Amino acid sequence: MSRVETQEATAAPDHVQSGWRAAFAFPNPVNEYAARITAGLVVAVAIVTLLTGFGWGLAAIAVGFWLRVLFGPRISPLALLSVKVLAPRLGRVKLVPGPPKRFAQGLGAAMSTAAAVLLATGLAPAAWSLLAVLIIAASLEAFAGFCLGCVIFGFLQRRGLIPEDVCEACNNISLRRP
Hints:
Blueprint: H1 3-10, H2 19-23, E1 30-31, H3 32-52, H4 55-71, H5 77-90, E2 95-96, H6 98-120, H7 124-144, H8 148-158, H9 168-171
Helix pairs in contact: 3-4, 3-5, 3-7, 4-6, 6-7, 6-8
């Protein structure tokens, strides 16, 4: 039995976790279509925020990212809409590894939080510029299926900055085959 098979046989499945670990669990694998729909919703909210200049929109975007990073799609309104309503209507499922998607959500959380802080401290041009970068990254995910955060995750993992065991499927192509 290989190391990966041994780990899979001894580890509890992601959906059978208990206690505080269950509260902070992130799905693995993730439905690519649900992730893309969530990114599209983020783009829509971010564009409305950018066009209206309402700071509360930045705060809502940041809170949404933090909810997805910390709790997966269980609490975030945009993720719930994507996972429970919109993605099932597509009737398509494409499973991809969860850890890179969580990392991408973390980058979104950092960027949107930084933009909110910049706006609160009176640096509106910098805040709106950062929001524009976030719109570009989320648009790539939503409309082209290109997850910039996932690419950065892979780069960091290949450089040894993210341990291989964080995402075995990311390192082993045979684990990605259906």
